[in-house]
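task queued by scheduler; priority normal; single chain, no ligands, no partner chains; default sampling; output format set to structure tokens
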Amino acid sequence: MASPNGASSEAVVRDSLRQIANLDKGLQGGNAFIEINPDARENARALDRERADGKLRGPLHGVPIALKDVFDTSDKMQTSAGSSALVGTPAAKNARVVDNLLKAGVVIVGKTNMSELSNFRSDTPVNGWSSRGGQTLNPHRLNGQPAGSSTGSAVAVAQGLVPLALGVETNGSIIAPAAYNGVIGFKPTVGLVSTEGVMTSSRLDTVGTFTRTVRDAAQALDAMTETNHHTTGLTPDSLVGKRIGYTPLPELSADDAEDPDIRADRQHFADALTLLQAKGATLVPVGKLAEGVSDDTYDSYSLALYADVKQKLEAYLAGREGLPVKSLSELVEFNERNTGPGVPDQGLLTMIKDLDVSDHVREGLWAAISPIFKDTVNKPLTEHKLDAIVSNFLSGSYYFAAAAGYPGISVPSGMDDDGMPTALHFYGASLNEPTLLSVAYGYEQASLAIREPAFIPGPG
């Protein structure tokens, strides 16, 4: 992730800021950024002085990055989760993961737009919309699905504005925008990366990354966790001997058979399986993850999740100094006073505010459902002695990996007939990031499927 052609950090950061101003904020830009760091160039100059003095912090030295608008930073930027109600005094200190990245030498050029309050505002959420940042667009097809909630971070990387952007996922908020915007989206095991100082929504939240290469994702994970082993498996023969599970695709319905996007996604998945096998992997068919998960389990998951959201948001609002609202009730009242045409409702946020679930009941729900979701992934991994499992993104496998708290990575697999990306989802066992990154790297290097955005107008 080093500066291209030996360019200074200041030059790279200056180019990033210029592209944000001219492309991202242009008439056909993605509107990925919600705020720019006014001190970015000075910070880059300081890192250039370090380099000139012989101090090199590592592969991220002087690299411009972006942060989803949920990471506390003790600079001049806001941390608002996209909400106009949370604009006030900047945070008093950095999130721990931000400190780790700054220690590795990054330059934060800005914060990215997102689905407001991590998509816990509206009953009918608009992915990539926030009251503070407006609507983020998919740069491949401007009217296409941008996905959420870490929308702006995915779009910033897709547009080439930064090589690395951070997101946070509860369930799908990294994997989905990465897939729809055609970049690498990496979600580590829950708890591997610190969430201290991050505006999280539940105990399942994990800090992850958007990049254009798997190697960049691995280097970023090393920096975020202050380790140095996540790139060791990124070798030319990384797929040789790997046992990879997959779920055979069912027969298409008559309607789906007429859908060119679904046909393209399925064809790219079939091509990917052929490629993985050709590069030395052993493919093992496994059952659907959803088998054995009851409707009651899904209902309990939603209730436990919303109860977590209430607890996490109430605690964050009460603990942050200098915000105009200090509770969910005040947040809902602010939104009521500041509604208007085109502004999404706040039905979901209101329901969460009014939720009456005791801590004892909430903990009991998680104790009951967590083992069920973990087993959906553990069972095929153990029974078939698998290194990882792969699916096409549209299968929804990311839901189960996220509910289990396990790592996953979205890798581009091609483009459909409408000019929208397709993607694979690789996932695996808890804390098995090195193997998962190795498998994803092997596919990425063999397929070279990532594409530059075309900014195509028209329907998605």
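post-processing summary
- The first strand starts at residue 33 and ends at 36.
- The chain has a mean pLDDT of 96.
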